[in-house]
């Protein structure tokens, strides 16, 4: 079989690219190795509850939302409040994330509150191009010498990117994500699967051929400017190839990524309860430890039961962290004991991921020169995904690079979006 474009990977990047390419009257094939589409945007239905793969939130004013709107994807859900609790050890403190929180928090004294407000205002106006190639740790230290405010900045940096290595992570990426987060997020009804399903149906309606359960063994460039793909027992020829899977596996197929790429990991506990001991507590994080808690079902319909509650507890993992599975689960359950004491007696169902990849690449400073552009060093081989951007990560990167790669491929045909 011959196609103009073969897209490898049916996650957000691949599906977005398929939607843009599908309107060009070309033969487009999307290959997904799993039986389901969506990648880390999949939602599982477990005992009448909808579980994303850990906590997910869509930026209301981000590039991803703009692109989804452009494609006609409906987003249904609500935005969480900007308040919450920060734990300093066992101390329960109002988070200074809202005007009320800034005025009432006991974490900061009055002088520190004024400095924190100034930092927030400066962060919102910060030009990313003015930051330069520095780590987030250095950026934080240059921004303030107050240890409490530094701790808050590290905490919200983890919140917006899932990255827990400020001494390595590029400040430009974190600040960019923070600026988007400050404009609000949305928790999606029935999880992110609804978004995935819409992208799938729209791509099919545009003539894109989608094959699930298709494992690509090898990508072979041919002399006549096309590729041979070995897919199971099939041989597929393509003029252009877009790879949206794991970067580590791309080099197994065809050597074109030179950087050492470290994934971003988290330990995640997804929990469904039939009663909530502290129903008003919807969000909490730890300042000393990298723990996160959020009650997503407060703002999104995630259960077929009228009184069901879906919450997520997470620990952002450092790249060098080496805790055991048992230890990580105990840590998350212990944090939930603090946030929602007595939760075990109301447990409906739960699941635990000790080492979940939440982003394929930790955006380190002065790295990834080989992924600056959608097209790789191999002509007509393109990349997209949460790892294929030097500006953003997570779904912001997946969706925006999916569109960028599609445009770069269409440029070869002298067609524009």
UniProtKB/TrEMBL annotation:
Pfam families: NAD_binding_8
Family matches, as Gene3D superfamilies: 3.90.660.50, FAD/NAD(P)-binding domain
Annotated protein name in UniProt: Phytoene dehydrogenase-like protein
């Amino acid at each position: 079989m011959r196609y103009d474009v073969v897209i490898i990977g049916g996650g957000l990047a691949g599906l977005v690219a398929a939607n843009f390419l599908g309107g060009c009257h070309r033969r487009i094939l999307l290959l997904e190795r799993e039986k389901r589409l969506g990648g880390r945007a999949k939602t599982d239905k477990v005992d009448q509850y909808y579980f994303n793969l850990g906590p997910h939130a869509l930026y209301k004013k981000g590039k991803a939302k703009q692109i989804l709107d452009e494609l006609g994807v409906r987003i249904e859900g609500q935005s969480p409040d900007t308040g919450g609790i920060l734990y300093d050890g066992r101390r329960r403190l109002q988070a200074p994330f809202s005007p009320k929180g800034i005025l009432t928090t006991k974490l900061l004294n009055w002088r520190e509150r004024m400095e924190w407000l100034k930092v927030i205002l400066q962060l919102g106006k910060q030009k990313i191009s003015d930051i330069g190639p520095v780590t987030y740790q250095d950026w934080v230290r240059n921004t303030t010498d107050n240890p409490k405010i530094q701790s808050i900045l590290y905490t919200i940096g983890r919140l917006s990117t899932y990255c827990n290595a400020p001494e390595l992570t590029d400040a430009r990426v974190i600040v960019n994500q923070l600026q988007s987060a400050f404009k609000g997020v949305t928790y999606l009804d029935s999880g992110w699967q609804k978004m995935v399903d819409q992208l799938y149906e729209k791509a099919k309606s545009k003539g894109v051929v989608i094959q699930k359960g298709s494992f690509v063994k090898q990508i072979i460039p041919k002399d006549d400017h096309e590729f041979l793909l070995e897919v199971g027992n099939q041989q597929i020829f393509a003029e252009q190839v877009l790879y949206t899977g794991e970067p580590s596996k791309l080099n197994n197929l065809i050597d074109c990524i030179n950087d050492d790429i470290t994934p971003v990991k988290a330990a995640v506990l997804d929990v469904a309860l039939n009663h909530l001991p502290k129903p008003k507590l919807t969000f909490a994080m730890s300042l000393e430890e990298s723990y996160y808690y959020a009650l997503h079902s407060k703002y999104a319909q995630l259960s077929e039961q009228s009184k069901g509650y879906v919450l997520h507890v997470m620990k952002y993992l450092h790249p060098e962290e080496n805790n055991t599975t048992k230890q990580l689960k105990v840590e998350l359950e212990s944090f939930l004991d603090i946030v929602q004491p007595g939760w075990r007696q109301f447990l409906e169902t739960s699941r635990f991921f000790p080492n979940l990849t939440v982003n394929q690449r930790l955006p380190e400073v002065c790295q990834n020169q080989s992924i600056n552009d959608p097209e790789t060093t191999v002509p007509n081989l393109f990349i997209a995904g949460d790892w294929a951007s030097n500006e953003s990560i997570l779904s912001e990167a997946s969706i925006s690079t999916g569109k960028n790669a599609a445009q770069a491929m269409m440029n070869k045909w002298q067609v524009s979006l």
